Amino acid sequence: MKNLLLLPIVLIALSAAEGRDAPLIIDHTCTDLWQIPDYWLDQARAQFRIGYGHTSHGSQLVSGMENFRGAEGSRYYYTSASWGLNPGYFLNDEWGNAGGAGDLGHNGDLSWRDATIAMLAKPDNDRNVVMWSWCGGVSDNDEVGINAYLQAMHALETNYPGVIFIYMTGHLDGGGTNGNLHLRNNQIRAFCRANNKVLFDFADIESYNPDGEEFLSRYALDTCEYDSNGDGNPWGDQNWAVNWAAAHPTHWLNVADSSCVDCGCAHSVYVNCNLKGTAFWWMMTRLAGWPGGPESAEIRCAGDQVQLDWQSLCTGTVYEVLGTDSLAPTASWSAVASFTNRSGHTNTCTYGMPSGPEGYFYRLKKK
Question: Looking at the structure, do residues 242 and 107 belong to the same domain, yes or no?
Answer without folding.
Answer: yes
